[in-house]
Amino acid sequence: MSDETRQVDDLRMTSLTKKFGDHAAVDDLTLTIPAGSFFALLGASGCGKTTTLRMVAGLEDPTSGSIFIGERDITHLRAFERPVNTVFQSYALFPHLDIFENVAFGLRRRGVKDVKATVESMLELVELSPMARRKPTQLSGGQQQRVAVARALINRPDVLLLDEPLGALDLKLRRQMQIELKRIQVEVGTTFVHVTHDQEEAMTMADTVAVMNSGRIEQMGHPADIYELPRTVFVANFLGQANLIVGTRAGNAGADVVVSSFGQSFAVPSERVFAAGSDLIVGVRPEKITILDLVDAGRVPEHHNRITGRVTDVSYTGVSTQYLVKAPWEQELIVFEQNVVVGDRSEVGDEVVLHWSPKHTFGLDGSSGTTVGVDPEVLELEAVNQSLVADDAEA
Amino acid sequence: MAAAVPQAGGQAPPASVVQRKSRTGYVLLFPGMAWLAVFFAIPLVTLFATSLQSPIEGRTGRYKPGLEIGNYASALSEYWPQFLRSFLYAGVATVLALAIAYPLAYFIAFRAGKWRSLMLVLVIAPSFASFLLRTYAWKTILADEGPITSTLNALHLLPDGRILNTWIAVIAGLTYNFLPFMILPLYAALEKIDPRLIEAASDLYASPQTAFRKVTWPLSMPGVVAGTLLTFIPAAGDYINAELLGSPKNRMIGNEIQTNFIEYRDYPTASALSFILMTIILVMVFTYIRRAGTEDLV
Given B200, B210, B218, which is nearest A92 (Cβ)? Predict the structure, then answer.
C-alpha cells in the first residue's frame, strides 16, 4: 500500500461548537489529534462524541469553530470533498452492490485507475477476497464490519473515522475485531478516530483516549495515564471503577497532602491532587488495595493508607476475587484481589484491614459529589440494594 | 436459512400428521383457486373461444363457434393505429407520472417529517370520489373558456387553441388518474432506504447527484418498476379518458373494444382485440422486467 511516501497531517479542531436549539452537543472543543495516531473519543451516549465525528466527516455543520487537517481548513468543505472517510455504525453497506463494488465505490467516484488491483489488495488486507462477489446481506456481522473498514480505508483518507464500529458485534467477535483493527491501523498508518462508549474498547485499542462529557473533553491522554491518574470524578468513575472517599484537606506532611475523612487521615502525593479547595475526594482503584485479615494488621507497611472494615460480599471471577468491604462509615469499598494463592480468601463477615500505597492514591475536587460518571442504572440498582438492606435490618 | 431444528424428543412427527398438514394446505387454497377458475380462467377461455367465432349469415350479433383466425388479422389491420396510440399515450402518461411522482414520493419519504401521514392521505384522498366523476371534473377544468386554457392561449402555448378534445387532455387525464398508483409504490421503496446509505455515499466522494444516481435510484428500482407497471397497464387499456376528454381522433384501443362490443355487437372482433392487447402488454412487461433486472423484486 505504501510505496509512495505520504505527507500525513494532524487533525485539529478549534473552538468547535454544535448547538441543537439551546443545547450545546459539542461545546467549544479544541483538540489536536496527531497524525498516525489511534485516537478514541470515549463517552456515554449524548456526550457529543458522535456529533464531533459527524462534523469532521462533514455530515453535520458546526455552529461555530473550525476544523483543520494540517494547515488546510476543511470546515466548509462538503462531505464528498473531504479527505476523510467513515466506518458507520452498523456499517451502511450498499445493499444493491456486491462486496467488490462496495469497496470500489470511493475509487470509482474519484476516477482512480487500476480499481481492480487496488480493491483486490484491500480485500486481502481484511481477509475477504473469497467474498468479493457476494452481497452484503450474505455476510456475517464481523465480515460486514471488515467490508466497512475496507470501503473507507481504500481511499487512503487523511483521517479514518469509526463510529461505534464494533457495537453490533457480540463480545467475543468484538475482542477479535479490536485486535484486527489495531493491526490494520499499524499496517496502514492512517490516523484513526474511534468513537465509543465502551471504556475497555477505548483503552485496548487507542494510544490516546479523550473522555468526553456533556460536549467537553474531561481528560485526555494515554489510557494508562488516565486510568491511573484521573483528574475528575467523572473520569474516575467512567473509566473503570474507583473507590472515592469524601474528606477535607487537613494540611501537608512532607510531599503529601493529608486528607481527613470520617476521623481517619489519608496521604495523597501533592502532585496527584487536582483540586484547590478544601473539599477533597480521596480515590483509589480497586486492584491497588491489598486485603488482610485484621489479625495480620501488623503487616501493613508504615506509610500506607489503611481502612478497617467487614467483608459484605465475595465474588470469585476466576482471575480475581472481588470483595465488597464495609468501612466504619458504612461506605462499601470495592477490592480486587488476584487469585495468586489458592484457598486464601476472606469470607463474608470477616474483619479485615485494607491498605494501599499513597502513590496509588489520587485527590479530586470534592465539590461535585462522588457519583458523577457512574452509569445511572448502576446507581439505581445500588439504591434498591440499600433499601433492601435497610428493610432486612429493621426486620 | 431454515436450519433443521431437532424436535423435542428427537422423533419425526407421525406420517398421518404430515398428511393432515398438507391436506390443510389444499383446503386453504381452495377458495382462491375456485375464485380464479370461475372469474378468471373460465372467462378467459370463453373470451378466446369468442374471438374465433364466425358470424351467422343474415343475423347481426349472432355467431357460431369456429376457428376463425382471420378475426385477429382483420382486427389488427383495422385497428393498429389505435393500438399504437394507446401505447403511445400510456407511455407518455407513465413517464409524466413518474416525473411528477418521484420528487413527491421522495419528499414524503425523506423530508415530510410529521406531515408524512397527512400527505399520504392527500395522495389517496381523490380516490374516494369515483373515477368517472373525477374525469368529468377535468372536462370543466380544461374547458375551452376555463382559466387554464385561456391563460395558455394568452401565452400562445396551445397549437390548436384548446386542450379539451385533444391528445393533451387525454394524456393529462391518464396521468392524473393513475398518479396515485405511481406514488405509493415509489414511496414504499424510497421509505425503506436507510438515509445513512446516502450519507455513506457522500462520505465516499459522491456528489448529491452521483449519490442519487448510484444509490437512491437503484435502491428505489422496485418502486419504479411496480409504479410504472401499475400505471402503464391500466392506462393502455383505458377508454374513459379518451372518451370524455378526447376527440374521435384520440380514440384508444379500449374505446374500440367497447364500441365493438356494445354498439356493433361484433363480439369476435372485440374479443380478438382484447386478446391482442393482453398479449402485447404481457410481452412488454416481461421484456421490461428483464431489462430492469428486478424479477426477484417485483
Answer: B200
